[in-house]
Write a structure and sequence with these properties.
Blueprint lengths: L11 E5 L4 H12 L3 E6 L2 H15 L3 E5 L7 H12 L5 E4 L14 H29 L3 E5 L12 H20 L6 E6 L7 H5 L11 H13 L6 E3 L2 H10 L4 H12 L1
Helix pairs in contact: 1-2, 1-7, 3-4, 4-5
Length: 263
């Protein structure tokens, strides 16, 4: 398929969950291609260190917004913060999220609610809030980070898997709805990636054959560079095959295999 590396000079990319891992890598790669960046996450010290590095290395402007994206009304808060600075966003990378491992009966209901709030409610609200700007610009992209677990049920990570299935479905639908606008919309589904995710989720031993954040982001950029960007992409050949097979193999078999892996 025909590709041509897109440049983003003169545009602004906002990355949520930008303090580490895939989010920080997205910020670095968009800055490398000339975009100013807005870095959003809770850990201000990490954001400021990353912002200073990107500004020095790529001669761009990096704006730091140390915010908790898991609170109600965060989309409106982000809008006010950007309006106060006179910033309009051309690209949105919805990367913020967290997971938890364990049987749902053993999970803290408040933690599950917080997961849904961040992974689903906040992502949806932020996407809807800034989508008109992205469409009007036509020079950037919307990328929401889903997961390979979006393609099958995930016992012992049931709620996390369900939130990522939501992200995949939502983003693919938005890609169709905006197909005639020029906006590139992509659901990115990584597999096990060398980030802090597994430490937070309590599933370090599950992270086998991990990709790096650089590999995951490179997958996304290659998809965005295509003449016709697909609505979704899975990062890593093995992950892509597994995701495809999950749609072919009987669901009961997939469920059993997933449960054995995560038990």
């Amino acid at each position: 398929m025909t590709t041509s590396e897109m440049t983003y000079r003169g545009t602004t990319a906002m990355i949520t969950g930008a303090s580490s891992g895939i989010g920080a890598e997205f910020a670095a790669r968009f800055a490398e291609r000339g975009a100013d960046v807005v870095l959003v996450a809770r850990r201000e010290d990490r954001l400021r260190a990353l912002a200073a590095e990107l500004e020095e290395r790529h001669n761009i402007t990096a704006t730091v917004l140390p915010l908790d994206l898991g609170v109600a009304g965060i989309a409106a808060t982000l809008r006010r913060e950007l309006d106060d600075r006179g910033i309009r966003v051309d690209t949105l990378i919805g990367n913020a999220g967290f997971g938890a491992r364990g049987a749902i009966l053993a999970e803290d209901p408040d933690r599950l609610a917080a997961m849904i709030q961040l992974n689903v409610v906040a992502l949806t609200a932020i996407t809807r809030e800034f989508l008109p700007d992205l469409v009007a610009s036509g020079r950037g992209a919307l990328v929401n980070v889903a997961s390979v677990v979006a393609y099958q049920p995930t016992p012992y990570m049931a709620v996390y898997g369900a939130t990522k299935a939501f992200v995949l479905s939502l983003t693919e639908a938005i890609a169709y709805e905006t197909r005639d606008t020029g906006l590139r919309v992509l659901a990115l589904s990584p597999g096990s990636t060398a980030t802090e995710f597994f430490e937070i989720a309590g599933a370090e031993e599950v992270a086998r054959g991990m990709q790096t954040p650089a590999q995951v982001v490179e997958t996304a950029l290659k998809a965005l560079d295509r003449r016709s960007t697909p609505p979704s992409v899975v990062s890593g050949a093995t992950n892509a095959v597994a995701s495809m097979l999950s749609g072919i193999i009987p669901r009961r078999v997939v469920l059993e295999a997933s449960g054995r892996l995560l038990a």
